[in-house]
Amino acid sequence: MVGGSSIRQRLESIDSRQVNPGLDRIHELLEVLGNPQLDYPTAIIGGTNGKGSVAAMLTAMGRAAGHRIGLYTSPHLTVVEERFQVNETPISVSGLDSQLEFVFAAADKHLDSPPSYFEILTAAAFRYFSEAQVDLAVLEVGLGGRWDATNVTRPKVAVISSVAIDHQEYLGNDVEMIAAEKAAIIPSGGIAVTAPQKPSVLEVIRQQAVSVEATLWETESFPLVVKRTDAQLCHTIDFTGQLRDYVGLEISLPGGHQVENAQCAILAAEALDRRRLRIGSDAIWAGLRNTRWPGRCEWLEESPPIILDAGHNPEAAQALARYLSELRHRKIFNRLHLVLSTLADKDTEGIVQALYPLADHLVATRAPSGRATTAHELLAIGAPPSQSQVVDDPGEALAAARASADPEDLICVCGSTYLVGSLRPLLVDT
Prior knowledge:
By secondary structure, this protein is of the alpha/beta class. Helix content is 40%, strand content 17%. The strands form three sheets. An eight-stranded mixed sheet has the order 4-3-2-5-1-6-7-8, with helices on both faces. It has a six-stranded mixed sheet with strand order 12-13-17-14-15-16. It starts with a helix and ends with a helix.
């Protein structure tokens, strides 16, 4: 075994973007580790946008029901430990080092080819949850679904959140091909839940469910009433699920898109309830009310207030734009200041087309990633607001937005997980 710093250096030496299709290697690694992923029930959450929010909601519901819940997510905002949580508490640095040492040692001894960055982390998560004796592990799919390292369990329920174009180089060039990859997480003979989808996407999901003899619950088929929203556009809803009716559910995560995510989480909880993991009405109510998901339309009570949003594809940007437009319509803020960065391998044009028309002031910056679009390139795309500036350093970019903003304005940091992850520690006492 090697020391913690050395094991982290080894982890970081692996290209996190490397994707090796197929599940043989992760199966082989888990077999060597004693198949820890089979020691507890799982729920798997896939899709393009919203899967992290659904996972966080379902985790909060399970906790409110008194269960010990493991949560595995990706990517992380600031530190890799965020990806491994038990009862919403991240694994310790030493705890993760210990898991990594064990997994690397097993891989070195028994595997012919080295596992990927994500395979190493996923195996470590499975082993950690086994040792922690969780009652349920909630797993967020990393990429796609069919060949994702998380797709090696026997889930009690699978959720497919909103499907959109992303990661075309791995998943396919059209949304139907992408949907087929994501729908492959649906368990044979199990229960699957899907958010509202384009008709062609929904048909792909339906066909996959039929092919594996799974029951599909479509959220649009269940009665919903939005009763009210607060100043931050957190919604209160009435919802009729598969098992029971819910009145006055308060969704703590802001934005209209979170209503769809909440429906998915409620139905997933009901599916687990049917599979003898009791999650009752009170737990669902409390879980939705207490869900926290950093970096996703996250409000920071500053002067002026700051919103952090790590959405990084056009559909996520459009959801953010709808949210900001509604805030403006309600006169929640005066002027909007965007601190924006994107990655060059994302659809930057689609992102800026959604956000530029709303901005009164743009501070283009460069997230701390070798894949980031330069700030000057951002200004050359689309039609940025007349008040725009280039500030390469993210911290200085945020300072520039603050210097230009009045207390009645709003600052929104968005476009990249790397950007939000670099600035959040400066704003939040973690």
